[in-house]
Design brief:
- The protein has 227 residues and is α+β, with helices and mostly antiparallel strands.
- It is built from seven helices and seven strands; from the N terminus they run αβαβααααβαββββ.
- A hairpin with a 6-residue loop joins β5 and β6.
- α6 crosses α7.
Length: 227
């Protein structure tokens, strides 16, 4: 009896798929990403303050994203790891302050946090459970006081324009490592500081030099809009 070649290849494909799935949770470092609310609201024209009210004029956490050294990243690694708010009940007030949602309609943050955990946090499960994941991001934000660091270099959210290299240098001096800066463009076609990327080791605790930095598409001089 001849072997069924089609079944053999199907089994081989399934085996490869399972192998890739198991490896998908391996990663090389985290991007810790913070966004400036003034730029988010100025550009999208549809930002809504969270139900807790207008956030402080501070960089808010966007996410803690596992990444590979080649610039790619894993995502949605474990569909069984659903977001469970009860696991972070002791962190909610701090998350509302430091990881606020600006999406419309106005929300309480749960949808934002759930998205970040399922898409990115699930890929860090080998290092961080859900509580550890969100707590790690909060501790990293406490270490990276970006508004204070920039203000010490005379860079403030006052609608003025600043040299991009001066911003990068201020962050490197303040934190000790290089940062990636992502910009957006407002309705007047001004290039604005939007998101700042810092790299973190796989434990989610220590900043490191970035193996690869994102391309931010920034002008040489960028606006730091008020909020």
């Amino acid at each position: 009896m001849k072997p069924n070649i089609s079944i053999f290849f199907k089994l081989l494909i399934i085996q490869l798929y399972l192998s890739v799935g198991c490896l998908s949770q391996d990663f090389d470092f985290f991007y810790f990403v913070q966004q400036w609310p003034g730029s988010y609201c100025d550009t999208r024209h549809s930002c809504c303050y969270p139900k807790t009210g207008k956030p402080e004029a501070d960089f808010g956490i966007h996410g803690l994203w596992p990444n590979y050294k080649d610039g790619s990243y894993p995502s949605n690694c474990n569909t069984d790891l659903v977001f469970d708010k009860s696991q972070i009940s002791d962190l909610v007030s701090s998350l509302q302050k430091n990881w606020p949602t600006l999406a419309c309609p106005s929300g309480d943050g749960n949808k934002f946090w759930s998205h970040e955990w399922v898409k990115h946090g699930s890929c860090s499960e080998s290092e961080l459970d859900q509580h550890d994941y969100f707590e790690a991001a909060l501790k990293l934000k406490e270490k990276a006081k970006l508004v204070e660091i920039l203000a010490n270099a005379g860079i403030k959210p006052d609608d003025e324009f600043y040299e991009l290299e001066s911003i990068k240098e201020a962050i490197k001096q303040g934190i000790g490592y290089s940062a990636g800066i992502e910009c957006n463009v407002d309705g007047s076609k001004n290039s604005q500081i939007f998101q700042i990327y810092l790299c973190v080791d796989t434990s989610g605790t220590e900043f490191i030099e970035c193996p690869v930095l994102p391309r931010g598409r920034c002008a040489s001089r960028v606006q730091f809009p008020k909020f």
